[in-house]
Amino acid sequence: MNTKQESIVNILFICLGNICRSPAAHAIFCDMITMRGLENNFVVDSAGIGDWHIGELPDKRMRTHGSKRGYNINHRARQFNVDDFNKFDYIVVMDEENYRIITSMAKSESDSAKVIRMANYFTQHSNNSVPDPYYGGSTDFELAFDLIEDGCNGLLNSFFPKDIK
């Protein structure tokens, strides 16, 4: 058996304010692991770089678009803390700015190595990031969901390929 499957993997999803992309990724990834019976193999959370929305529910548009796809996106926003490097095995960022900011907070190379890009797990899309839909319209939110679903699926399969039971 793969050693990754024998231990719990701690994953933190990051975006700018923790009200759009990262709480969506949190909900989508949790849904995917539950559907595959893997919920005992992961601890999943999300956080934002900024403190503007601490304690708030995700953006209403994100919740509405998520609900149409069957997701309950109800995470309360929190801010990333350098202690998160100690709590999480992987810190998944949505774009290059997130990557730059989070890696600049790392205290060691091992902390930096935990920071990974969601785009690295895309299997159906060629985008190099998950663009922030906050200032956009419905199409932007739908694109964010398409990319996040693709990335979460690729990420999950990197730990548990579908052919392994």
Question: What would you note in describing this structure?
Answer:
It is a single chain. The protein has helices at residues 3-6, 21-35, 60-68, 84-87, 96-105, 109-113, 138-159, and strands at 9-15, 42-48, 90-93, 115-117. It is α/β, with parallel strands linked by helices and 165 residues long. A 4-stranded parallel sheet has the order 2-1-3-4, sandwiched between helices. Helix 2 crosses helix 7 (138-159) and helix 3 crosses helix 7 (138-159).
In short:
With 165 residues, the protein is α/β, with parallel strands linked by helices.
Topology at a glance:
Blueprint: H1 3-6, E1 9-15, H2 21-35, E2 42-48, H3 60-68, H4 84-87, E3 90-93, H5 96-105, H6 109-113, E4 115-117, H7 138-159
Parallel strand pairs: 1-2, 1-3, 3-4
Order of helices and strands: HEHEHHEHHEH
Separation, N- and C-terminal Cα atoms: 10 Å
Unreliable stretches, pLDDT < 50, 5 or more residues? Answer: 1-5
Strand order of the largest sheet: 2-1-3-4
Percentage of residues in strands: 5-15%
Largest sheet: 4 strands, parallel
- The whole-number mean of residue pLDDT values reads 94
Number of helices: 7
Number of strands: 4
Radius of gyration: 15 Å
Large-scale geometry: globular
- Secondary structure class reads alpha/beta
Helix content: 40-55%
